[in-house]
Amino acid sequence: MAAIRVVGILGSPRRGGNSEILLDRCLNCAVKAGAKSEKFVLNEMKFMPCQECAIIRKDGRCKIRDDMQKIYPAIEQADVVIVASPVFFGSLSAQTKMMIDRFQCQWLGLYFFKTYSIAKRKKGAFLCVEGTDRRDFFDNAKAIIKNFFVTIGASYKYELLCPLTDEKGAVENHKDCMERAEEIGRLIAT
Predict the structure, then answer these.
(1) 30 exposure class (CB count in 10 Å sphere: 0-12, 13-18, 19+)
(2) 38, 44, 165, 172: which has the fewest Cβ within 10 Å?
(3) Cα 5–45–161 angle (5° rounding)?
């Protein structure tokens, strides 16, 4: 049996921060359980936001050639997609939202032109940290992630919402969040 393919997407601009700590913990546990993982650090990739092109491809593919061309096939082939993002201004980070917006072409191919189909169903996991304890901020971020998961053919299967993690590394003081990241890693590998 082939190993579960897990794609981790880090949407935080801060390396080694709370989002990355949770994502790495999750990915490491998945790999220990037999999965293969690939991680994308959006802030280190060179890609532009959706340009809402006047002339678009109708096959669900984006015509802009940049680092997003690495993410599209990885997500198509994945069994699990994990998105890790901090809350910024009551929603996702700009890096995360910019990546999600670039799937507009796929959404159009699926639902408008009906020329694109999802070849492989997958599971989705969302890891999110927030400096305060505003549940409505988590709800805003989740709404966007849920739409993204529908567009890539992923069921919203696992979530980890960790409040009160503003300072770099603060999540390590949240034993419950660290344990949940490990649990999700084990669960997605099976």
Answers:
(1) buried
(2) 44
(3) 60
CB 98 within 8 A of CB 131: no
As a whole number of angstroms, the distance between CA 118 and CA 84 comes to 23
Domains of the chain, CATH where assigned: 5-47+56-188 (3.40.50.360)
- Name the pTM for this structure: 0.96
Query: What pLDDT band is residue 1 in, cutting at 50, 70 and 90?
Result: confident
Residue pLDDT, tens place only, 33-52? 999 999 999 999 999 999 99
CA dist list (Å): 127 to 7, 81, 110: 13, 11, 26
Q: Are 38 and 7 in contact (CB under 8 A)?
A: yes
- CA 182 – CA 25 distance, rounded (Å): 6
